[in-house]
Amino acid sequence: MAAASQVPVDKLVTSGVFRLDGGEWEVENNVWIIGDERTAVVIDAAHDHQEIARALGDRELMAIVCTHAHNDHINAAAQLADLTDAPILLHPDDAPLWRMVYPDREPDAPLLQGERLQAGDIELEVLHTPGHAPGAVCLYAPGLGVVFTGDTLFQGGPGATGRSYSDYPTIIESIRERLLPLPGNTVVHTGHGPSTSIDAETPNMVELLARDGGRKSA
Q1: At what angle do helices 49-56 and 77-84 cross, to 10 degrees?
Q2: Distances from the Cα of 21 to the Cαs of 24, 45, 58, 134, in angstroms?
Q3: Per residue in 56-89, pLDDT tens?
Q4: Band of the pLDDT at 1, cuts 50, 70, 90?
Q5: Within a domain: residue 2?
Q6: In angstroms, rounded to a whole number, what is the distance separating the alpha carbons of residues 159 and 6?
Q7: Model confidence pLDDT, tens digit, residues 16-43
Q8: CATH code assigned at 136
Q9: How many independent structural domains does the chain possess?
Q10: How are beta strands 60-65 and 146-150 bridged, if at all?
């Protein structure tokens, strides 16, 4: 197997198909691996469980953390869990989306607001940020100065809310309440595309909040 990484955060990009509401779109997903040379946590097991396992190397996988249950973020979770004997963690509000992908299997444990997970020496705090999906969460690592936002916040603004189980005012409120109060230099590691920072995204979010109090539909 590959040698274990000495970097606390590894990024792997996998490719596949996002399916929802009868549509299909080719996508690339960011898979994040956080930990040390012995143990790790995977955030969003997307598309290719074998590629993720290779990136883990000899590290023990402690958990597969799902920022939400859209298929492109969880479609490698079950196979990776079976391969590594790691639990799958998901916020219970995303159960309807989860069952679209895994009708005969449940996540192993819930992710709840304020819960803290351990990835090697790194602590991850669970921030419930509904809007893109009802059970969407972000994972804040204050010791690293980073937050993993899934599809809640991207470079340029909030995640999409035009499909089932999503809501624009809710995602705006989640970002206002849970993400904008983080230190401005916090690096934002997203579910797709490039990383950004809280400082970089604050001006756009302040503008959205000022416009109809963030209540305009999208």
Answers
A1: 40
A2: 9, 21, 39, 16
A3: 999 999 999 999 999 999 999 999 999 999 999 9
A4: very low
A5: no
A6: 31
A7: 999 999 999 999 999 999 999 999 999 9
A8: 3.60.15.10
A9: 1
A10: unpaired
Range of the domain at 37: 9-214
Strand pairing category for 88-90 and 60-65: parallel
Please give the span between the terminal C-alpha atoms of the chain, in angstroms, as a whole number.
46
Q: Strand, coil or helix: what is 101?
A: helix
Question: Is 4 within the bounds of a domain?
Answer: no
Q: Which residue type does 19 have?
A: R
Contact status, residue 21 vs residue 133, Cβ threshold 8 Å: no
Task: Please check whether residue 159 is in contact with residue 174, taking contact to mean a CB–CB distance below 8 angstroms.
Answer: no
For 108, residues 6+ apart whose C-beta sits below 8 A from its C-beta are 81, 87, 88, 89
Place of tokens 């959205």: 208
Q: Is the pLDDT of residue 218 over 50?
A: no
3 belongs to a structural domain: no
Q: What is the pLDDT confidence band of residue 217, given thresholds at 50, 70 and 90? A: very low
Q: Which phi and psi angles does 90 have, rounded to 5°? A: -150, 145
The tens digit of pLDDT for each residue in 190-214 reads: 999 999 999 999 999 998 888 856 4
**71 assigned to some structural domain:** yes
